[in-house]
Design brief:
Layout (H helix, E strand, L loop, with lengths): L23 E4 L5 E5 L5 E6 L5 E9 L10 H10 L11 E10 L10 E7 L7 E8 L5 E5 L4 E7 L5 E8 L10 E9 L5 E9 L10 E11 L5 E5 L5 E6 L5 E8 L16 E10 L5 E8 L17 E9 L5 E9 L28 H4 L12 E7 L5 E5 L5 E6 L5 E6 L15 E8 L2 E10 L11 E9 L11 E3 L6 E4 L5 E5 L5 E5 L5 E5 L4 E7 L5 E9 L11 E6 L5 E7 L7 E6 L11
Antiparallel strand pairs: 1-2, 2-3, 3-4, 4-5, 5-6, 6-7, 7-8, 8-9, 9-10, 10-11, 11-12, 12-13, 13-14, 14-15, 15-16, 16-17, 17-18, 18-19, 19-20, 20-21, 21-22, 22-23, 23-24, 24-25, 25-26, 26-27, 27-28, 28-31, 29-30, 31-32, 32-33, 33-34, 34-35, 35-36, 36-37
Length: 606
Amino acid sequence: MAGFTRPVTASGDGVSGVNYDQTTLGYDALGRRQWTESADGTVAWNVLDARGLVMSTWVGTDLDYDNNGTMDTAYFRDWLAQNPTATTGPAGTSMFLVSAAIYDYGNDGGDGLVTESRVYFDSGTNDYYATQYAYDWRGRLTDALSPGGVVTHYQYDNLGRTVLTQTYASADFTLSAAELRAQSEYFYDDLGRVYETRVYEVDQATGATPGTVRDYLPAYTWYDSRGRVVKTSDGNGLFQKSEYDGAGRLVAAYTCFDADETAYAAAATVAGDTVVEQTQYYYNAAGRMVAVATFQRLPGDTTTEGELTAAYSYATAQVYWYDGAGRTVASVNYGREDVDSGLTHYFFNGTTGALIDTDANGIPDVAEAAPPQPDSSDDYLVSLTEYNDAGRAYRSIDNLGRIDETRYDDAGRVVLTIQNYDNGTVAETETDQDVTVAYEYSAGRLVTLTAYNAKGDDSDPQNENVDAQATKYLYTSPVNAAWQTAEIYPDSEDVLSQNGDGTWSFTDDNGDHVSTAYDRLGRTIETTDQRGVVHAYTFDTAGRLAADTVTSFGLSGLVDEAVKRLGTTYDDVGRVETVTSFADTAGTTAVNQVKYAYNGWGLLAR
């Protein structure tokens, strides 16, 4: 299982890229942070104005224009000042404009409010998606216009609290009633807490009177004297109630309803409520949750009110144990614990349904005893967790005593997983034990995943018949070195070599891999698989996926070519409206189509 490793030095700092992964920060002449170079070589650069506001952000993987092995930050800073409208970095570099901000509508002497933000997807001057913002005289955001022509409008009270949000299908900030598509309203109590939210039904573009506001569904929130939420209700009348102990810990949660409940004090109790589901939490003296019980109302129970118990519900229980550091080391699922289960009871009394709590301290006896061992009974399921010296969970043991082990490097990354651990050595005859996968990293990126497969006894005592099947990953994007651009499977006919830093390069590229290309925003714009099948992804003017087009079916002759394109369209507020398959790459000959319609609540109707 030899692989690329990063040794830890006995003393000193070691070497970047060998002993540690380094992130470098750069500052301008005023001491403001301006750029960051991550361990993989990706550079993020902010252009700042005199006030320190970020005017634009550039990202790339090469800022060494003269190839002398040093980042030419001063040169790039000067170049940016001389080329304020550029979208691609100077020759010899690999830097790309990815975002820009306009403050105060481009006027001097403003309040420093972002009035337009742009994200660039390509090199053209207009190759960006713009979001525009409007504010009131107090500098509060009142409107946000997305690239898709959707305006979100906000209204505030005199305390600056949002009291109304509306969504309009509008290409500008001149809003009309007919363009309204959604509306929500918020109400506050004397302590400034939201106690009621109203979501309104609004006629959509396909309705007889688009923008007409109709009924609303209210949601309410109740608080106790400490400000904790004790009850919420939604538009269908269903309650969620919470109960706390003196330490403020949640001890019970209920899903219930009561059509006659009106008094505020009733919010803190389920007396008289029809409880549908209930969860009970138990804590030890250290404040750790040591047990949880769940109750579900029986289907035929139409009369019981108040809290559910194991005597007349479907009840289950689970218990947890901790070490001295407060980490979970064992958990046991006892399954059904209600009186009707007909099973052995450990948590609730099998006759009365009462908690088995001999010392009456509110903690089930089973949670105060030592945890049982795996495979000690068919009545429950045991799970154990063990920790290494660094405090990381490295072993999990299931109810059959099977061990799964995870090993880490000094950076806390997973470097080895072993399923059904026996001795940690992969043997040719043990196909169901010590199932091992190794992980190798370079600059924080996974570069190799190796599965060690036992292939059975080959009757050769000189040979350990274990196949190390390595999947390799390449990261060659000029924009971001963390984006995976190629995945090479173990059966590939490509030839690769491993560099000194652990990364891989093609020695002989036969196209036997999966490759991915990205735009500046990190969106996948093209994929090619081992068969040579190429998918090209295009986006509409709002940045939404518009088409997935197969531009090549490869040479295998095994790929069905009936559908060459999948197209997606959106309604006037950006929801998927149609998904269409086409027999041609141009998207003119439809094969079939799925169409979506939404109701006035914004929900999928058909």
